[in-house]
Amino acid sequence: MTQIQDHLGIQELLGVYALDAVDKVERALVDEHLRGCAHCRAEVKEHREVAAMFSADMEPAPERVWDRIASSLGTELAPTRLADVVPLNSESRTISARSLTWVAGVAASVAAVLGAAVFSQSSQINDLNSQLVAQEQEIASLALALDADPLQQAVTVALDNPAAQIATLTADGASGAMLIVVLPDGTGYVYQNTLDQLPDDLTYQLWAVVDDKVISAGVLGNRPDIVPFHIDPQGLQGLVITQEVSGGVPQSESAPVVSWFDA
Which domains does the chain have, with CATH numbers? Predict the structure, then answer.
């Protein structure tokens, strides 16, 4: 074999040699060649760097592993005799096929590991997205609660109290014109009305009838909306709204606009 033929033949084995997939005879030939060929030593180094990128922890392929694989597949490989081989013959192609098969197996293993990692990361991202959506919904609910009218919130809580008393104040022969809720502790709210707006010099005034006494419960203004007040709930007999001068009066002489009396 000429020096050129010997060099070309060895080059066919460099990839397999770098992956430790050659037998003892092939290894000895390549080792001897590498001692005097800097170009082939550099190529082996490159092959090994590429193989290292597939798996840093991968062990060298066992001796004669390719012959056992081929035997299990029912394919018998011809003995390797590099000393009598002409470069690029069938045996060289068989050895190259070994390298390709081994690299393909490594690539498949790496792909499987990467696929499992991607699936795990995808699941974690989905979980984080679900948590983020839940947190955003909670923040939106809190924002709505903060933006809501505190008096409206208080009325809502009072109406949800099963012990609260709801009074509908009406005029003679009229439908409900004013709704009032009173809690057991005497806290009350005027929270709905259909009364007409009064001039600026007049106001509506709320009176509570307790133990046959008429007591002022608060001035509601000329256009009442939600108005809080407090009375003694013990002995409450009725609620009356009158029309008075702006600022209210200590004692009313006006006729009730609307009223409610406990039956």
Answer: 3-112 (no CATH), 155-261 (2.60.40)
